[in-house]
Design goal:
Keywords: Chaperone, Cytoplasm, Nickel insertion. This protein has 214 residues and is an all-alpha fold. It is 65% helix and 0% strand. The protein starts with a helix and ends in an 11-residue tail after the last helix.
Length: 214
């Protein structure tokens, strides 16, 4: 059972106020909206559900678990695999820039010995250093990940704030389900089949008008 202090620590780390720059990234959603692939709240829900099940939602959770459970000497190899697993240059920037920012701020505040890993690897290692529950860390990470993309969808499609909260609420059970399953898996189980989202992140690199970095 997580203590109040552990819950509050994770809420702080995964809050939009924690300066990792998550607001600047759309994970390819901006390109999907520009092409008409995501045009309303229902399409946004489906798009994000696929990313959770078959894309970064699942794979990031596997990397988070691996980093949480690994001895320190294995972390560079896990991080190298996390970087290699990114399907595009922008997605690599998304995870490395947020991970570096998270490591920098966390090490300055507590302080911790936390290298500039990719975001899920940095979070997994930090959670281990602070003795935070792995399951809760994974669930709140996925909730924060989806919340950021819903926020991007609100601005891009656009949809209203209330509909955005309806999308997020609809995806909460899936965040729990993906975390529960992914936390039983290892790096050998890594796979990614959210191909449209991956392609969207590639086409975004040359998109003429952009609000987001990815």
């Amino acid at each position: 059972m997580a203590t109040d202090g552990q819950i509050l620590r994770l809420a702080q780390w995964l809050s939009p106020a924690y300066p990792v720059g998550a607001f600047a990234y759309s994970h390819g959603l901006e390109s999907a909206v520009a092409t008409g692939a995501v045009a309303d709240g229902a399409a946004l829900t489906d798009w994000l559900a696929d990313i959770l099940r078959f894309g970064a939602g699942r794979s990031d959770t596997i990397f988070l678990r691996a980093a949480y459970e690994a001895p320190p000497e294995d972390l560079p190899d896990i991080d190298a695999l996390a970087r290699a697993f990114q399907p595009s240059a922008e997605r690599r920037t998304e995870t490395t820039a947020q991970g570096a920012a998270f490591a920098r701020v966390t090490a300055a505040v507590w302080p911790d010995d936390l290298p500039d890993f990719t975001y899920p690897v940095a979070l997994g290692r930090a959670a281990r250093l602070h003795d935070l529950p792995l399951g809760l860390t994974a669930r709140l990470y996925l909730q924060a990940f989806v919340s950021n993309l819903v926020s991007a969808g609100i601005r891009l499609i656009p949809i209203g704030q209330t509909e955005g909260q309806q999308v997020l609420t609809a995806l909460q059970p899936l965040c729990e389900e993906v975390a529960e399953v992914a936390l039983t898996e290892t790096l050998d189980d890594l796979a990614g089949t959210s191909f449209l989202a991956d392609i969207a992140s590639m086409t975004h690199e040359t998109q003429y008008s952009r609000l987001f970095r990815t």
